[in-house]
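Incident log, structure service

09:12 report received: a user says their structure output differs between two submissions of the same chain.
09:20 pulled the input from the user's history:
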Amino acid sequence: MNILIVEDEIALRDGLVDLLTAAGHSVEVVGDGVTAAKRALEPAFQLILLDVMLPKLDGIEVCRRVRKTRPGLPILMLTAKGSEEDKVRGLKVGADDYVTKPFGARELLARVEAVARRAQVVPAEPEVVVVDDCRFDLGRCEAVRGRTIIALSPRETGIVRWLYRHRARAVTRAELLEQIWGVRSDTETRTVDVTIANLRQKIERDPAEPKVIRSVKGVGYAWGEP
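09:34 re-ran on a clean worker, output below:
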């Protein structure tokens, strides 16, 4: 993949370059948010590693701006240890995943490779799904409700696709983490909840009474009305 690294800490940035280059990726680096918001719009980049704390413009605002123009670009955010607020804010503005500093090389590569695999899966034909008068074009990473076109991130598209594919049953948070995030975990469930809450704000007619993605008490989530 061609990856844009956005990190102002030189030692960490150099380490990321060495790690990702050794893994076979092409990388470019920038050290501030203003430059990142411009460079990320270049179509050559297939993934952004985006630090939250940046000079000139923070990573949250960079993510928000990039999402408006490139809704399908995978964004992996780098957050400080224990900064739950940064993680939630990042997911709400459209980040696909996050890695907490300090992180291990294997963890970072696993998350990058999971994004790479998803990016390579291109449907032969557009996948169109309709539920509660909301039309999803999964091939285009978008939904349409009424006359409003709603851009979906790759992660949000993956959630819709997985829930629809397994619509005959409820899907657990752990399953979504493994299948959509590429991470096995029994504890990190808030990530799924925040992402789905953000997705509901986009696609549901009434997010307080969701009909596209239902909550199943004690299990996780399910597709459509029972």
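09:41 both user submissions now match this output. Likely a transient worker issue. Closing.
09:42 reviewer note: The mean pLDDT is 86. The two ends are 40 Å apart (CA to CA).
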